[in-house]
Design goal:
9 helices
């Protein structure tokens, strides 16, 4: 009987040395879930750009040479997950990467990070948004926030007051682009946040939870890392989304409790033992308080 090998995820994102976001978040979280995390850096930053100053080194011209060595080694991965991409060329490189490194059974998660609060990020051109649609087509799961879901579908954004039918229609429209599953994250209402989960066999599930504490950078990276890990472990998507949302909530609450500066993100490190315990219990285990 063949032994089951440890799972692997190729994680594409920038690396910020300070501020708890992107690969600095993804690598320890995925590792805590018992999965080997293999980073593909898109850029190197001293700290994330929410601080007043930062060092930035664009890695675009190095990415293809980096990935070429992986091709020479004939590497394949159980999961590929993508985060913030800083240019149209980077999106194209990652699209080619997915096609080259995907094997039978590889799970691909695309977090189409393009904007927030109703507006595209200043770096995101219409051409980049169109290119992101091409990347979305290659995904098994996409995790846009409401702003990004509106950009992908051409819908008009509004801060609150979304009806379930409207969210369902957006999720199905994104699914028609190619991904089998869609998660529209953090749909806001006065006192709660809702994740809209669309799976091919289960249809739409609305997961609603109370808001917790301050908005902090990096929480989307925490969430998508947990979801990517749970996919590779073979969990149902709705279970991974539930775990990711609950873990983010606990991280925010702990960070507020300890008066961690908002720009420093969430102190997820203190809760990694709980995440490890939760993963050992499997998809149906209870998350410890």
């Amino acid at each position: 009987m063949m032994k089951e090998c440890q799972k692997t995820i190729a994680m594409v994102n920038d690396l910020s040395g300070y501020g708890r976001c992107s690969l600095t978040v993804a690598m320890p979280i995925v590792s805590a879930m018992g999965i080997q995390c293999c980073p593909v850096p898109t850029s190197i930053l001293s700290n994330h750009t929410g601080f007043p100053v930062w060092f930035f080194d664009d890695y675009t011209d190095k990415m293809e040479r980096y990935l070429e060595k992986w091709r020479e080694l004939d590497l394949r991965f159980d999961g590929i997950a993508t985060g913030f991409l800083g240019s149209q060329q980077q999106i194209q490189i990652v699209s080619h990467m997915i096609k080259n490194f995907r094997k039978n059974g590889t799970k691909v998660l695309v977090d189409p990070i393009m904007g927030d609060h109703g507006k595209p990020y200043s770096t995101y051109t219409p051409g980049m948004c169109r290119e992101m649609e091409m990347l979305v087509k290659l995904a098994d799961v996409v995790t846009p926030n409401v702003t990004e879901a509106c950009i992908l579908t051409g819908k008009e954004y509004r801060k609150e007051g979304w009806k379930q039918k409207e969210l369902e229609e957006m999720a199905y429209e994104i699914q028609k682009m190619g991904p089998s599953s869609v998660v529209i994250t953090g749909v806001p209402s006065e006192k709660s946040l809702t994740n809209v989960v669309l799976e091919p066999e289960r249809g739409i599930v609305f997961q609603c939870g109370r808001r917790a504490g301050n908005d902090r950078p990096g929480t989307g990276d925490v969430f998508s890392s947990v979801v990517a890990g749970s996919m590779v472990l073979g969990w149902e998507l709705s279970e991974g989304v539930e775990l990711g949302a609950e873990f983010v909530k606990k991280c925010i609450q702990k960070s507020d409790e300890l008066d961690i500066p908002v720009k420093n993100g969430v102190c997820f490190e203190l809760l990694l033992p709980e995440l490890i315990m939760r993963c050992k219990k499997g998809a149906k285990g209870a998350f410890h308080s």
